[in-house]
Structure formats: C-alpha cells, structure tokens
Amino acid sequence: MLVEHFSNAEVLKSYAGKKVFVTGHTGFKGSWLSMMLIKSGAKVKGYSLAPVYENSLFELCGNKLDIESQIADIREADKLKKSIIEFQPEYIFHLAAQPLVRYSYQQPIETFEVNIMGTANVLEAMRSLDKKCTAVIITTDKVYENTELGIPFSESDPLGGYDPYSSSKAGAEIVTQSYQRSFFPIQDFNVHQKSVATARAGNVIGGGDRATDRIIPDLIKSLESGTTLQVRNPGAIRPWQHVLDPLAGYLKLGMLLNIDPHKYTGSYNFGPIPEDQFTVKEIVEMALKIWGSGNYHTPELKSQPHEAGNLKLDITKALQNLNWKPTWNSQTAISKTISWYKNILDKKNNAIELCEGDLGEFYN
Questions:
Q1: Strand (E) positions, the chain?
Q2: What confidence tens digit (pLDDT) does each residue in 294-321 have?
Q3: 241 closest CA partner among 155, 328, 310, 318
Q4: 3 state DSSP class of 294
Q5: What are the φ and ψ backbone dihedral angles of 106, each rounded to 5 degrees?
Q6: Start-to-end C-alpha separation, the chain
Q7: What is the pLDDT of residues 167-214, one digit of tens each?
Q8: How much is the pTM?
C-alpha cells in the first residue's frame, strides 16, 4: 500500500505514542486537534494563551483532556524555546495566531507580532532541537493576493493580503519558507533532521467555536439570545468545511512529511471540492432550517473594513499528492455544527461527549 492511501483512521493511529507539541491548543481548532491526537494515543503538550471566549471549547472540555497545558504567549521566545526543548517533540503543529480579520484592523501591530514573529519563534525553537522533528505551520486561505476574479487559488499563486490579518499570515508563509531554505534545506536533511510544511485552510466550522465576527458563532449567539442575526456580506463565497476535515489533512501531511520530507515539504490547500461551495446567505439559511427557528437581515453597512468577497481554494495538490479529500460535504458540516450547539442548549449535553460522537462518526 502506498503511504498516500492511508485512511484517516490509519493516519490517526500513526501518532500513537508520539510526542506532539501543539501551539494554540486552547483555541477552537487547537482544541479539536488536541482531542484527535489524544484519541490516537499521542502524548500532547499545548502552548497557548488562556481561552478568550466564555464557553469556549477548551473551557468546556479542557479539564477532561489528557494534555500537558502551558498557558503562555507565543511572542515570549525564550519561554517557548524552553518549553519545546524540554518536551522534545517529534511533531509540532503551529496553530497559535491572532485569527480575526476585523480585529486585525483594530490591532495591526499585535496581529503582525503574533502571526509573523510568533511563527519565527516556533521555527527558531525547533532549530534548537537536537533530534528529528516534523512541523506543520497552519496559515489560512487568505494568504493569496485576492483579485476577486472568482478563480480558485492554487499553492503557486502569489501571496498577498489586503488587511493586516491576511498579510500577516502571508508573512508567516514567507518566514516558514525562509527557515526551510536557510536552516532546513532538503538536501541536508540527514544533518538537521527537520522538515516543514504549511497548511492553508479556509472557513472551518464545527461545534465549540465562540469567536467574534465569524458567521456561525454570530448565528449561534443570535439564536441563543433570540435576536436577529446581522449578515454583513450575504453574497460572499467561502470554502466552508467541518473542522475535522482540514485537521485530518494536517495530520496526514505531518505523517507523510515525517516519512518523506523530500517529497512533501511545501504548502498545501485544504478545502471543499469545487462544486461544494456556498455563499454566506446560503449557509445561514441552511443553518436556520436545521435549528428550526431564527431570523437574519442584511442591512446596508457603510465605512466597513474591507473583507474578501470571493474566496475559493484549488485543492488539486492535496488530492493528488496526499490523496486527501473532504470526508463531509458542506451541508453535512453545517448539520453537524448546528446540531452540536442545539444539543448543548436544548438537551444540556456534555461538550466532550458531543465531540467524541462527531469524532466517532468521522473516523468510522
């Protein structure tokens, strides 16, 4: 069997007993990734700021997770380096970030510091490890120079970024490429034993996201409070996907990169298949139908920060090189996500049990 043909379950099993360092483990994606790795039998250490949002996924599940958790800032280079060296990881998944477009307009310097220098700090700490280590650096679909032509972006397209968030993530890509070329060149892998790749995913959804200025968390807040949702950009197209799909892609990329860094070093898009893309309005209407109630309106908003209108990813490279493709389509992703929140609210279900249920179905 070719390594590319490993199933999601086989990929997960490959992390059993491995030491995995996760930055941003208290965030939405980081919490889900931590649960996946724990399910695999990996030894996980997380490094992140404390959860920001009330009822965040980590807040609901963290004390039930078998994880070594260090609450610290990714910008504290010496503390981060000490943490990584002491843990001696075999894998690093770097998710810690300032992840919000609109917040980046309010705090651009913080955004650049966290997303660019934070990434450099991770790579510099990794450089100090005297052992083999594989790193997957998570950026975003917004790293591309978006000309709003509606053409899906491929990994070879120019990097850019209109807003501070997008440009900071493009900067993180450039920093990673620089470290790979300067300190971890493929031709000298037997000497330095370090391999790096970047992963670019878009609008991930799933149970437990409580961030501001994201359509699903905003929708859930309106449904929970009985208010009308304000939809800023109803016609905007985004690559919607359930959080488990790109995370499974990151894990597969990490596994294959560890096996053959010569073949898998580089950047990869993770998103839905081309025909499975919806506008914000369509996603909202699907979600309200599943919930069974709720309203939205689309007021005219003036003097708003720029946000991309059309964003699509070409996932051909991941399909062909990694044999990765989404397990759940967008409609399933919406259904799983809305049902997760509804079960928390109506049935008072335990968050960790709901996550384990989704994981069980995903890996079935």
A1: 19-23, 43-48, 68-71, 91-94, 133-138, 194-201, 204-205, 229-230, 237-238, 241-242, 266-270, 278-279, 296-297
A2: 999 987 766 566 555 567 899 999 999 9
A3: 328
A4: coil
A5: -80, -35
A6: 20
A7: 999 999 999 999 999 999 999 999 999 999 999 998 899 999 998 888
A8: 0.94
